[in-house]
Design a protein that fits this description.
Helix 3 (about 60-70) runs parallel beside helix 4 (about 90-100), helix 4 packs parallel to helix 5 (about 115-130) and helix 11 (about 250-275) packs across helix 15. The longest helix is centred in the last third of the chain and has 23 residues, at about 250-275. This protein is α/β, with parallel strands linked by helices and about 375 residues long. It has 15 helices and nine strands. Helix content is about 45%, strand content about 15%. The protein binds S-adenosylmethionine and iron/sulfur cluster (SF4) (2 copies).
Length: about 375
């Protein structure tokens, strides 16, 4: 089966690379800092829509060099931004990574504001690159009024539903396309998320995966964390992961990721309670962040740069060998050295540490039995 082969191949490659790779197997690339929304808790808000930044944006030729030099060590690419579908050369960017690296899974979050553009580009990608899983993640933060208030974009809810419908039509003929929904848990939507999920079902929106995420970033204050209350988040997140309808019951890829995320919540719960993410942090080793102007960061919550890839001949390996990265690791990785609420660190811990595999298997069996 296509999806199972691909996901097994992804995990076996990640595990194989772990032992000797000098560059992280997962890259998060913020392709643009342009955005047509104005979301209240956006993790990239400090960089959005700055005119002086646009002229510094990595060109397609530069992206091609980065992909070439990254080579076969890259297996998962996540785009971010800004709004990725505002970048007109998005297909060419993806093409570069598919051609030069070992990328098996590409994840693109979107605010869903451009249904036709998104559907056209996605259809073209999944038709051209049938061996790569493309996950499109629609960001929806609440029912109509709450979503549009949080995102500062009147009419966005309807556009997002339209985007879902157009993508759903593409998904029917392309098994390498997955449609996900991502909801950022925040003070304005805590009491609205269950209603949002019911509304999506009423609109016949059945996603391959749905998740709520706990916010991260320097702007998330202690008081906000108290309001957000991780126990409440945990209960909601677990009930969604365990009971939301499964779009395709033979889709092992999506079921496995659900099982992993069920375990991820447990790890995140422990680290948030103990205020000790540093204990499991391997930011920059398993996952690296590259922004639109070439700056490289080991993690999103603190945006502490370790250099610009232009100054390292477009080589991620050279940045990973730099003194700046060594200093970063020494000061952040380890018991009580640093703290944040970034779910990716907990997720990487679960994926890369075999001690969690029996639990993931148990979660997977439960999902299969209950479906
Ligand atoms: C930064 S956005 C970029 C892509 C696109 N503009 C969008 O909104 O989907 C990527 C994802 O991060 C989520 N996000 C935004 N701020 C966040 C934060 N502080 N913590 C965690 N996730 C956040 C968004 O809701 C979205 O699902
Ligand atoms: S749409 Fe995405 S990038 Fe734009 S402000 Fe919202 S979360 Fe940030
Ligand atoms: S623990 Fe520190 S270094 Fe690690 S991801 Fe969180 S903020 Fe970044």
């Amino acid at each position: 089966m296509f999806a199972s082969n691909n996901v097994f191949s992804y995990f076996s490659t990640v595990l194989r690379l772990l032992s000797f790779s000098k560059v992280p197997a997962d890259l998060v690339y913020f392709v643009t800092s342009d955005c047509n929304c104005n979301c209240k808790n956006c993790l990239f808000q400090e960089s959005l829509n700055k005119t002086d930044r646009r002229s510094l944006q990595l060109s397609l030729e530069e992206v091609d060099k980065i992909a070439k030099r990254y080579g076969k060590n890259l297996v998962k690419l996540s785009l971010s931004g800004g709004e990725p579908f505002l970048r007109s050369d998005i297909l060419e960017i993806l093409g570069s990574f598919v051609t030069h690296t070992n990328v098996k899974i590409i994840d693109i979050p979107t605010n869903g504001s451009r249904p036709n553009v998104i559907a056209d580009k996605v259809k073209c990608f999944v038709t051209t690159y049938q061996n790569v899983i493309l996950e499109i993640q629609l960001s929806v933060d609440g029912t109509r009024e709450i979503h549009e208030k949080i995102r500062g974009f009147p009419g966005l809810f309807e556009l997002t539903l339209q985007t879902y419908q157009e993508l759903d039509a593409v998904r029917k003929d392309h098994r390498n396309l997955k449609i996900k929904m991502n909801t950022l848990y925040q003070p304005d939507n805590i009491e609205n998320i269950r209603e949002l999920y019911e509304l999506m079902l009423k609109n016949n929106c059945i996603f391959d995966r749905m998740q709520i995420v706990f916010p991260h970033g320097a702007h998330i204050q202690e008081e906000t964390l108290d309001i957000l209350n991780y126990d409440k988040f945990y209960e909601l997140s677990q009930s969604i992961l365990k009971s939301y309808p499964i779009y395709n019951k033979k889709d092992f890829h999506s079921l496995l990721f659900r099982a992993i995320k069920i375990e991820r919540d447990n790890v995140l719960k422990k680290t948030i309670k103990n205020k000790n993410m540093g204990k499991i942090c391997k930011a920059g080793k398993r996952n690296m962040v590259l922004d639109d102007i070439g700056t490289v960061y080991p993690c999103e919550p603190i945006w502490e740069p370790i250099g610009n890839i232009r100054d390292y001949g477009y080589s991620m390996e050279k940045i990973c060998n730099s003194e700046a990265f060594k200093k970063f690791k020494q000061s952040k990785w380890g018991n009580q050295k640093c703290n944040c609420t970034w779910g990716n660190i907990a997720l990487d811990e679960v994926v890369h540490n075999p001690k969690y595999y029996p639990k993931i298997l148990f979660n997977l069996i439960k999902l299969l039995v209950n479906k």
